[in-house]
């Protein structure tokens, strides 16, 4: 997203990338770009300091000016007179060799000099620099460093202003607000495999680079794989829903200390609202865009997410090696946009620059052969090479000239106000011939089989054969849930229809077009909009087409989204009463904590006062439950083992189906049915080149199905902010459809 459509607006952030090559013109372009960033700000905005790590805009304007005065004008222009000798104390940042300085946490207390005085200071120094450069002085590397230094402060100005405005109860916008246009779905993340080997990293010597980018040197990389895109907000919401901020097993010790001390529960600038999560941006407070890259997370959070995802962060050498390959293939680096963009078309590595800085797992340290320059400028980078971590890429507010593969940004691991996100990495095993994307199915299977209790998400049951087998299961005499719920819905349909207001939007969690959906639509012709939500675009399109064909007067508004992470309903539902529908006791597939989080999300999505119809399988005799999940004909066993068939076919697995047995068991303590695949012997299986050992009796946990009492479900719903208003139930076998009210 461009900062402005006019040339002047673009110049504010792009000056360095497009400036002329001669020194005076480059200098002027960078200095004007900095001042351009301050035009939307009041004098009061430019004085305030929101935290010790941030600085007032006025201080940035003066400090970058002090740099040119101290390191170029005073030693290089014979008759130059400093604007005010006291400014050296006020606007020195950290250069010990340049003398004492004002404490960083107290920069917001510098009310004098005024903003006008600082602008006069800039004009005075600019006049001196014009003379210096016009005289043909060989400013050379120091001029390059000073300009690059000021460009870094351009990004810091925007970082600090966003932090300041986010602290304001008014939530002011730095840039003109625009209509929110949600990013396109980037699709499932894949992994691109790279062979590694002996590679070179570091700046190659052409053009400007900071001293920490060299010397160029060789490193040996084991084969590795990088995610083809950045982690999205929707994926981060899944991490949150899985208890990511409450589970210490994912966190480094210092990171967990930070979570507890700071009360982290979401990325910086996120705030929970009635309709979902919002986030503060440079364009003001906006809904969290599920498909945009997550931003403003610390290194600790990035590490925890990677651990939860069964992956890791890349090293900086891996990132640079991969980015150099992308650059050779001609991918353009995006210009500054003030906010992250969504991923582009799939294929190869995407979003390598111009969205967010990407945390790496590499500690910031000197390259082999690094030696800082003599004098004060040698303090620019070298003195910070401890206690910090490297970020690579470039953010949406990074001046274009800084977007290069060798650039080493660095921040402390707890800092969050940086425009920073993450990309996942994995070890890739023995080197292969070609880089290839890795599917979400592969990623989830490899992660699940690496867990202490091996587990595979049940959503992968449903390939073509799995879907056929499940249809057969629904016809079995032992499998009561489907026919029981259908019978209950038909019996209660007139009463349920009375709870659906005229002109309502029926929002189904999962793509409908089944008998259950039609029972409601037939009983409640006053329904105006039907909005099914499903993660499978194909299933959703088929369901929507079927309903449109059979109910021509009904507006059908499908939403292709993971219904556990959806943040916004289709526009067709706006202004209408909403009733949610979640049949099939699918809620039983969640753990209680996951169910509570789902119900909380559904309440936010549907809005205040909405109704929510939920099918709930009730607790019953254990023998009846086990029979329903372990039928006499062996259909459910075939359904469970088909998961291994799919792994063998699609992921190059070598599971011996005869050495795994189906097990269905009632877990009374957790009040749930569980399905497992049990290893009948000590054995080893391979998936995507990775080996997994199984002990005799060890299991792969493939499904949960929690069972409830109406009272227990009422309590669970109440924890999520719902009130149970009505319940229709069948006693034998026990099943209920409940109406919740938000």
What does this protein look like?
The chain has 742 residues and is of the alpha/beta class. The protein has 19 helices and 25 strands. Strands 13, 14, 15, 16, 17, 18, 24 and 25 form an 8-stranded mixed sheet that branches. It has a 4-stranded mixed sheet with strand order 10-9-8-11. A 3-stranded antiparallel sheet has the order 1-4-12, covered by helices on one side. Strand 19 (660-667) and strand 20 form a beta hairpin. Helix 1 crosses helix 2 (23-37) and helix 3 runs antiparallel to helix 6.
The geometry reads as elongated
Q: For the terminal residues, how far apart are their CA atoms?
A: 36 Å
Instruction: Let me know the number of strands.
Output: 25
Broad structural category: alpha/beta
Oligomeric form: single chain
Count of DSSP H/I helices: 19
**What average pLDDT do the residues reach?**
88
Alpha carbon gyration radius = 30 Å
Share of β-strand residues: 15-25%
Mind describing the biggest β-sheet?
8 strands, mixed
Low-confidence stretches: 1-19, 329-337, 341-347, 431-437
Kindly state the percentage of residues in helix: 25-40%
Q: What's the topology here?
A:
Layout: H1 7-18, H2 23-37, H3 57-76, H4 87-91, H5 115-134, H6 140-167, E1 191-194, E2 197-201, E3 217-221, E4 224-227, H7 233-241, H8 253-262, E5 270-273, E6 276-281, E7 284-287, H9 299-308, H10 316-328, E8 357-363, E9 389-393, E10 409-411, E11 420-421, E12 425-427, H11 440-449, H12 464-474, H13 481-497, E13 505-509, H14 515-523, E14 529-534, H15 537-550, E15 555-556, E16 559-560, E17 578-582, H16 592-606, E18 611-617, H17 622-629, H18 635-651, E19 660-667, E20 672-679, E21 683-687, E22 690-694, E23 699-706, H19 710-719, E24 723-731, E25 734-741
Parallel strand pairs: 8-11, 13-14, 13-17, 14-15, 14-16, 17-18
Antiparallel strand pairs: 1-4, 2-3, 4-12, 5-6, 6-7, 8-9, 9-10, 18-25, 19-20, 20-23, 21-22, 24-25
Helix pairs in contact: 1-2, 2-5, 2-6, 3-5, 3-6, 8-9, 12-18, 13-14
């Amino acid at each position: 997203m461009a900062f402005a459509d006019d040339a002047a607006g673009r110049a504010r952030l792009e000056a360095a990338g497009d400036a002329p090559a001669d020194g005076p013109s480059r200098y002027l372009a960078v200095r004007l770009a900095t001042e351009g960033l301050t035009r939307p700000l009041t004098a009061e905005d430019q004085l305030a300091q929101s935290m010790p790590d941030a600085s007032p805009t006025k201080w940035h304007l003066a400090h970058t000016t002090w740099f040119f005065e101290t390191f170029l004008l005073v030693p290089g222009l014979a008759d130059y007179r400093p604007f005010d000798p006291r400014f050296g104390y006020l606007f020195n940042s950290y250069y010990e060799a340049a003398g004492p300085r004002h404490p960083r946490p107290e920069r917001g207390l510098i009310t004098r000099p005024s903003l006008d005085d600082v602008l006069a200071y800039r004009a005075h120094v600019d006049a001196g620099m014009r003379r210096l450069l016009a005289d043909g002085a060989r400013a050379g590397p120091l001029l390059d460093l000073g300009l690059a230094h000021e460009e870094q402060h351009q990004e810091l100005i925007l970082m600090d202003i966003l932090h300041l405005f986010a602290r304001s109860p008014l939530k002011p916008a730095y840039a003109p607000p625009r209509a929110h246009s949600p990013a396109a779905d980037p699709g499932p993340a894949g992994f691109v495999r790279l062979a590694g080997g002996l590679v070179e990293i570091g700046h190659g010597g052409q053009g400007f680079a900071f001293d920490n980018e060299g010397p160029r040197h060789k490193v040996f990389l084991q084969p590795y794989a990088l995610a083809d895109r950045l982690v999205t907000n929707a994926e981060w919401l899944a991490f949150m829903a899985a208890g990511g901020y409450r589970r210490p097993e994912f966190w480094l010790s210092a990171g967990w200390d930070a979570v507890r001390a700071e009360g982290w529960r979401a990325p910086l600038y996120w705030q929970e609202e009635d309709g979902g999560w919002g986030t503060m941006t440079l364009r003001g407070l906006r809904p969290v865009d599920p498909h945009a890259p997550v931003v403003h997370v610390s290194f600790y959070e990035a590490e925890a997410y990677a651990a939860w995802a069964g992956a890791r962060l890349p090293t900086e050498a891996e990132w640079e090696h991969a980015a150099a390959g992308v650059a050779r293939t001609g991918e353009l680096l995006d210009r500054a946009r003030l906010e992250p963009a969504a991923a582009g078309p799939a294929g190869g590595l995407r979003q390598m620059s111009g969205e967010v800085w990407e945390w790496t797992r590499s500690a910031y340290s000197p390259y082999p052969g690094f030696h800082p320059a003599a004098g004060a400028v040698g303090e620019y980078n070298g003195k910070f090479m401890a206690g910090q971590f490297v970020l690579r890429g470039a953010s949406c507010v990074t001046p274009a000239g800084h977007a290069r593969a060798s650039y080493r940004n660095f921040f402390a691991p707890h800092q969050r106000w940086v425009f920073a996100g993450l990309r996942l990495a994995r070890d890739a095993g023995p080197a292969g011939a070609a880089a290839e994307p890795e599917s979400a199915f592969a990623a989830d299977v490899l992660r699940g089989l690496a867990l202490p209790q091996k587990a595979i998400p049940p959503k992968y049951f449903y390939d073509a054969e799995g879907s056929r087998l499940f249809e057969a299961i629904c016809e079995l005499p032992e499998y009561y849930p489907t026919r029981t719920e259908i019978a209950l819905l038909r019996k209660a349909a007139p009463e349920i229809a009375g709870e659906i207001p005229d002109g309502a939007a029926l929002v189904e969690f999962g793509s409908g077009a089944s008998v259950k959906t039609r029972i409601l639509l037939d009983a409640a012709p006053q329904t105006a909009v039907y909005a099914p939500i499903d993660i499978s675009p194909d299933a959703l399109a088929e369901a929507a087409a079927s309903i449109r064909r059979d109910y021509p007067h009904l507006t059908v508004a499908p939403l292709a989204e993971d219904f556990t992470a959806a943040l916004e309903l289709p526009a067709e539902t706006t202004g209408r009463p909403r009733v949610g529908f979640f049949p099939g006791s699918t809620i039983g597939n969640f753990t209680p904590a996951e169910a509570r989080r789902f119900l909380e999300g559904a309440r936010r999505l549907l809005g205040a006062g909405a109704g929510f119809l939920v099918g709930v399988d009730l607790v019953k005799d254990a023998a009846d439950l086990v029979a329903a999940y372990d039928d006499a004909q062996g259909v459910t066993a075939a359904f469970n083992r088909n998961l291994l068939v799919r792994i063998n076919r699609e992921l190059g697995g070598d599971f011996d189906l005869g050495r795994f047995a189906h097990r269905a068991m009632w877990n009374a303590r957790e009040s749930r049915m569980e399905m497992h695949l049990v290893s009948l012997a000590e054995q080893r299986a391979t998936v995507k080149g990775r080996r997994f050992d199984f002990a005799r009796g060890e299991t792969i946990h493939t499904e949960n199905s929690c069972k409830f009492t109406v009272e227990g479900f009422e309590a669970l719903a109440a924890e999520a902010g719902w009130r149970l208003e009505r319940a229709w139930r069948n006693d034998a076998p026990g099943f209920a459809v409940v109406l919740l009210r938000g």
